Amino acid sequence: PETITVQELANRMAEKGADLVKALFKMGMAVTVNQTIDQDTAELLITEFGHNVKRVSESDIDLSLDTAEDSPEALEPRAPVVTIMGHVDHGKTSLLDALRGTGVASGEAGGITQHIGAYQVTLKDKSKITFLDTPGHEAFSEMRARGADVTDIVILVVAADDGLMPQTIEAINHTKAANVPMIVAINKVDKEDANPQRVRERLLEHEVIVEEMSGDVQDVEVSALKKTGLDELVEKIQLQAELLELKANPNRDAEGIVIEAKLDKGRGPVATVLVNRGTLRVGDVFVVGAESGKVRALIDDKGRQVKEAGPSVPVEVLGLSGVPSAGDPLQVVENEARAREVAEYRQSVLLQKRTAQAPASLESMFSALK
Ligand code: GDP
Ligand code: MG
């Protein structure tokens, strides 16, 4: 929401509406509890009351994000973000490697790719596809639970010899719950005991009706090992992406989502960020989860330093105050004071949550044992 009434904000903050009105008056704004204020003002108020907020919900944190929609004219096409899911050993990693390697990708074979949790492939027609390299099913559903819906398309890998297995079904359920379109890649069709038709039939039982069975879920037979069917798979991704009309505004302060983060010896805290909208640049000041920072360097999936990263581009970001969590939003803000302010506020929220979850005292722990 771009605006909120003072009363609604007060309710969410578990504060009295009158107290918010008073605080706003001190800030030079004469408003009543029924009037609306904009996001920046709401954010200021939250920070102001940050220390004595009793009950803080996730939505209050979201309030500090500039969630204003971009105008349709500002939107430009962006690359689809694809996650590969499926049962262990059905060939997820092999397929990712095959897609990144020769044949499908243009001219980047031989380039040293480094693992940053996501990578982008440039196709022969110059269009791009971003693949997420980390999310297991848990990461996928956890990120989604946090509102970090980064995946546009799921590729469900099913080995043609093994068929549907528990994690295949889990992946189907996650994908359905996330309402993300799925493409079924029936892998290992080179194997003697491969039975792709059996896979299609079993999928019916889980209400995944593929094209071959007159449904509308795209399916394709591939062999990650022999590198067959890859062009067709890429075509299907492109087709699905076209249907989704994926767009973002590249000309604004960047927003992104942390895909993975770690403390690197030598380089300090490092986060791989997938930019949602805007363009992230070296020198930008940002908040990321409960951390803040200033972009010291951006490194792409080929290990090259880059000056900027636009929508759907994954980059490693250096210059963070600490290590954020996967799924944390990153947001460019106007200055370092502001970044620290929001980060500190979020730290206090996290602390409150932890305190609320911790056992009250040793005494109560002992009495619980009696
Ligand atoms: P993941 O656990 O889903 O990431 O699966 P991997 O990519 O690690 O593959 C598991 C095993 O299956 C490895 O030994 C691969 O070499 C093999 N494999 C993957 N794709 C194919 C394929 O298309 N054909 C055959 N015959 N083997 C494959
Ligand atoms: Mg793997």
Automatic annotation (TrEMBL):
It comes from the Bacteria. Signal peptide: none annotated. GTP binds at residues 86-93, 133-137, 187-190. Residues 77-247 form the Tr-type G domain. It is found in: Cytoplasm. One of the essential components for the initiation of protein synthesis. Protects formylmethionyl-tRNA from spontaneous hydrolysis and promotes its binding to the 30S ribosomal subunits. Also involved in the hydrolysis of GTP during the formation of the 70S ribosomal complex. Belongs to the TRAFAC class translation factor GTPase superfamily. Classic translation factor GTPase family. IF-2 subfamily. This is Translation initiation factor IF-2. The lineage of its organism: Bacteria, Pseudomonadati, Pseudomonadota, Alphaproteobacteria, Sphingomonadales.
